[in-house]
Amino acid sequence: MDKFDVASSQKYDVYASRLLPKEEYFVGGHRSCQGCGEALAVRWVCKAIGKDAVIAHATGCMEIVSSGFPQTAWVQPWIHVAFENTAAVASGLEAGYKILARKGKLSGNPPKVVAMGGDGGTTDIGLQALSGAMERGHNFTYICWDNEAYMNTGIQRSSSTPYGAMTTTSPPGKRSIGQPTWKKNMMAIAVAHGIPYVATACPSYLFDLYFKVKRAVETPGPAYIHILSVCPTGWRSATDLTVRLGRLAVETGVFPLYEVVNGRYHLTIDIPELRPVKDYLKLQGRFRHLREPEIEFIQRQVLAHYDLLLKKCEAPYPEFPPLSQTEEGE
Amino acid sequence: MAKRVGIEVSLAVSHAVQLARAEAIAAYPITPQTHIVEHLSSLVANGDLEAEFINVESEHSAISACIGTSAAGARTYTATSSQGLALMHEILFIASAMRFPIVMAVANRALSGPLSIWNDHSDIMGARDIGWIQVFVENGQEAFDHSIMAFKIAEHRRVLLPMIVNLDGFILSHVVEALEFADQDTVDRFLPSYSPWHHLDPKKPVTMGAFGMPEIFAEFKMKHQVTLMNSYDQIMKVWQEWGQLTGRDYHPVEHYKTEGAKVLLLTMGCLSEVAEIAVDELRSAGESVGLLKLRLWRPFPFAALREAINGAELVIVCDRALSVGGVGGPVLAEVRSVLYPMASRPKVLGYIIGLGGRDVPPEAFKEIFSQAQAEAEQEPSEEFYMYGVRG
């Protein structure tokens, strides 16, 4: 997709709700917390997917807030089975529709298959099923709602929790600064599977998110999108700062927005000058205990990671050679 | 025309699945299930079976993918054993609660530890309460027949439950037997093309797998219980229909020389054939003994079992699994419980045999027969007996 600079993104994103489809697929009445960035992301992702889709969802926040029997917030056909197996369920759906189409038992094209799960269901317990599904090359899109901890069970740390963050299982104390490890690079793991489309997104950048999801579901083969979903409950942030925090995550370089198309990295939101990470951290209670040296460490690490990402974007060669099979399939 | 062939039982099961025109198979290799899925994958690779074969990265994903293919509306099959069944465990309950008519073969094998690839029933007994229909087969012909009938039972609109066909690992799955294949026309007439009752379709969107609050959870469980018990009638109908087509009749509790028997041995799976030899020899020695073979494990055939007891004084339940620290074998526990309300009930003693592939010759059943009779004459010395195990 075309590159947005920060200025034009800010200029146009306010019109997103008027310019993008008005049909709602994730409807009101669900029980997400006030200011939930994930519910916002789900709403726009479902619009981008469109109606000819089937969704497999992992156990987690979005499943719990949206599907208490006999109610549902999902307009598209939707299935929840368990926590760690969503990519496997999606594999089955995709294969199922494929054989039914081949046998002439489907009217019309097979629906798009989209799997969704939180960061715990994706980067921890669901990683094996996801790896298997990506490796097998199913034609599906996997979307990770990354709110950076197990929020549904009460804010426990995951491998996607950022360094230094306070969670209920990575509490700061005399011998702890909070989460002791750096956030797992799930994007690189997805890219390492040699899949045709990988992207990060954030609902604070609606056009960017919308077109990435659209591209992902239209790409034959596996696609992976990692969506930063601000969680006021878990991040201990004000509920009216959700969109701003998403923007700050991008503007500080903490969560850069980029795509990896057929192994080639490029930024989709270019930030000419990164803001200090402090601007992002100070609005969140989960980082309140951090002292200057720790914040400086985070700043150095964020810049180092960002620098590496820029180098990948400038690399003259892709991360993996293109599959001739993929070319044929297109 | 049906034809008689000599074939490895695992391969016969694959051909049954081929004749049933399974549309999706998701499986992960585990000994001794492997020959079933290897052969299925070659049938798919050669275009002899029009199906999607998903080579998943674990059994957990195998059963999860099966839920996916079934939710898409495809006739779905898988097979596993032992640790693989254990890895599927949490999803097995969900598959039945969501009413997906998946058919699965379990080539029964011991659960680790210590690691053992050999046969017993500890894998399936760990999955006793998963809410699936479960049968045990005793030879290759039965494995073949039940693999076809399972689809018809599972997919019936008054059933819609997944079904497991248990066949003993190695001692049944890997032996070559002479058996009769049904031809494709017969199977097609018996089992029409699958048309799902519930599936995911953008033209008619539904939400599947909504969670249950305390106000509704028990009602879901009650419905599952009632449906599984009611599946009994349909199972009988399908078995009868197959019997009319093939001349092979199946019953929830099979009888072998039980007429007037004072003592009844009770077995499950392919050791029943060994027990038959023992019964023959004991009968010719003048003993009043017969054999009951429990074929239908879920739904439990309460009435058929009580009726089968028919005045016997002693029932010797031979379990192939041990409930460690419990009452012995799971089959013993259930049989005793089912017979307890009878006004005139036999004594029920339990023997654990053949764990982890330990050979059980006919002599073992004869010895158990005489030991049990001695025990029954007095206050039993143990809650249950581990047969032939060194101290």
Blueprint (SSEs and pairs):
The complex is a heterodimer of chains A (330) and B (391).
Chain A (H helix, E strand, L loop, with lengths): L3 E2 H8 L2 H4 L17 H13 L3 E5 L3 H6 L11 E3 L5 H17 L9 E7 H6 L2 H10 L3 E7 L25 E2 L2 E2 L8 H6 L5 E5 L4 H13 L4 E6 L3 H4 L6 H10 L6 E4 L2 E4 L1 E2 L6 H5 L10 H23 L9 H6 L1
Parallel strand pairs in A: 1-12, 2-3, 2-4, 4-5, 5-9, 8-9
Antiparallel strand pairs in A: 6-7, 8-10, 10-11
Helix pairs in contact in A: 3-9, 5-7
Chain B lengths: L2 E6 H11 L4 E4 L6 H12 L6 E4 L3 H14 L3 E5 L1 H16 L5 E6 L13 H4 L7 E4 L3 H16 L7 E6 L7 E6 L2 H7 L16 E2 L5 H33 L6 E4 L6 E5 L3 H14 L4 E6 L1 E3 L3 H8 L4 E6 L10 H10 L7 E6 L9 H16 L7 E2 L5
Parallel strand pairs in B: 2-3, 2-4, 4-5, 5-7, 6-7, 11-12, 11-14, 14-15, 15-16
Antiparallel strand pairs in B: 1-8, 6-13, 10-12
Helix pairs in contact in B: 1-2, 1-6, 3-4, 6-8, 9-12
Would you write up a description of this structure?
The complex is a heterodimer of chains A (330) and B (391). By secondary structure, chain A is α/β, with parallel strands linked by helices. Chain A has a single domain, classed as 3-Layer(aba) Sandwich (Rossmann fold). Chain A is 40% helix and 15% strand. Chain A has 14 helices and twelve strands. An eight-stranded mixed β-sheet of chain A has the order 3-2-4-5-9-8-10-11, with helices on both faces. Chain A has a two-stranded parallel ribbon with strand order 1-12. In chain A, strands 6-7 form a two-stranded antiparallel ribbon. In chain A, helix 3 packs across helix 9 (206-218) and helix 5 packs parallel to helix 7 (127-136). The longest helix of chain A is centred in the last third of the chain and has 23 residues, at 292-314. The radius of gyration of chain A is 19 Å and the shape is globular. Chain B is of the alpha/beta class and 391 residues long. Chain B has two domains: 3-246, Thiamin diphosphate (ThDP)-binding fold, Pyr/PP domains (Rossmann fold); 253-386, Rossmann fold, CATH 3.40.50.920. Chain B has twelve helices and 16 strands. In chain B, strands 3-2-4-5-7-6-13 form a seven-stranded mixed β-sheet, sandwiched between helices. Chain B has a six-stranded mixed β-sheet with strand order 10-12-11-14-15-16, with helices on both faces. In chain B, strands 1-8 form a two-stranded antiparallel sheet. In chain B, helix 9 (271-284) links the parallel strand 11 and strand 12 (289-294). The model of chain B has no long low-confidence stretch (mean pLDDT 97). At the A-B interface, strand 2, strand 3, helix 5 and helix 7 of A face strand 3, helix 3, helix 4 and strand 9 of B. Strand 3 of chain A pairs parallel with strand 9 (207-208) of chain B, so a sheet runs across the interface.
